Amino acid sequence: MYKILIADDNHHFTKALSYLLKELYKEKIQFIRSVSNGEKAVEITKKENFDIIFMDADMPVMNGIEATRKIVDKNRFVIVVAVSFHQEMEYIQEMLEAGARTYIIKEDMDGKSIENCFKLIV
C-alpha cells in the first residue's frame, strides 16, 4: 500500500492530482496527504514515512528544491517526483541535484507520467 505526499501550494492542482492518483491506484493507496509548502513537507516527513512525494519546485516559505534536499538527506529511499510549470533546464537540474528521481511538467502530467513514477518504487 502506497503512502503518498503531495507538496504544492496550488490547491486545485493538489485536488486534481489526488483524484488522478485515486483513479489509477485506489486499491494500492493507503493514504494521500497534502501540504502547501516545503517547510510543512519536511516536518510531516519527520513524523510519517512516505513511498512517493510529488514536490512542487516553487512554493512559499521553503521551495521544493530545499525541501527535497532536506527530505532525501534524511531518507534516501523516498521517491521524490518534482512537478512544476517551469520547463527551464535550470529548474529541472536543481530539483534532480537535490534528490528528485524525475521531473514532470504539470501541463504534461497524465496517467502515463504518473504510472512511470510508480515504476520507480518497485
UniProtKB/TrEMBL annotation:
Residues 3-121 form the Response regulatory domain. The modification 4-aspartylphosphate is found at D56. It comes from the Bacteria. GO terms for biological process: phosphorelay signal transduction system; proteolysis. SUPFAM superfamilies: CheY-like (SSF52172). InterPro entries: CheY-like_superfamily, Sig_transdc_resp-reg_receiver, ST_Response_Regulator. GO terms for molecular function: peptidase activity. PANTHER family: TWO-COMPONENT RESPONSE REGULATOR, TWO-COMPONENT RESPONSE REGULATOR ARR22. This is Protease production enhancer protein. It comes from Salinivirga cyanobacteriivorans. The gene is degU_2.
